[in-house]
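User: Protein phosphatase, Mg2+/Mn2+ dependent 1J, Phocoena sinus:
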Amino acid sequence: MASRLLHRHIREQLKDLKEVTHESLVVGAIENAFQFMDEQMARERRGHQVEGGCCALVVVYLLGKVYVANAGDSRAIIVRNGEIIPMSREFTPETERQRLQMLGFLKPELLGGEFTHLEFPRRVQPKELGQRMLYRDQNMTGWAYKKIELEDLRFPLVCGEGKKARMMATIGVTRGLGDHNLRVCSSTLPIKPFLSSFPEVRVYDLTQYEHCPDDVLVLGTDGLWDVTSDCEVAATVDRVLSACEPNDPSRYTALAQALVLGARGTPRDRGWRLPNNKLGSGDDISVFVIPLGGPGSYS
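Assistant: Predicted structure for Protein phosphatase, Mg2+/Mn2+ dependent 1J:
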């Protein structure tokens, strides 16, 4: 639904702009479009009994500028003359810990008496009541000590690390579209109040640089980035594109395929493996490659 309709919402919001006097107007139009898409999903799920949600990563080109909007754990980078320019970041329970904790602090009813907004290095045990333990709240980037109280025994709002980090012990992303019916496991507590459909939008001015055919914008789902670093992606960009003629229009498709196959790995005795023998990605691997300089163009 998002892949079919989100770009239409963006187009409608941009059409309402009589004149683009500042890039913030385009950013606001894209942000609004994400909200309207999420609201449409909420309305239509009632009639169609459709559940679930998705992340969304969008690129808009307008008046010489590229706008990258991200809600979820997909990412985008620009590879320009070997330089890596991040155009988004992942939104996970780890990266958005303070936003989630702040919401839980301001609206404790959303925690349903089942969770605590505080974070501890590990799960607090009943035998530790009255003892001192490290913690951090919604305002803290460091750690401090507190005396463990009864409510600290509740499950933490944010727990785990890396790909195992979860919000409300259920979901590993904190922004996206849909999931209006999602509940905490074995509970009726809704998760949607903590899931934001609001994207982060970053802007890249194409007119400020001279781009060659090997300068590209790479968009990928978490299946790519879970097993492939930015530097590895940049190395694949250089290897694949340098082996193709600058005017070959299929060179960018070949690059996207190489990135997908590289993240998947090759079949071996114990599953799909990468060259370093680590497991290949078991997640969805979708990749877009967008050239920033036209084929054969160095302007």
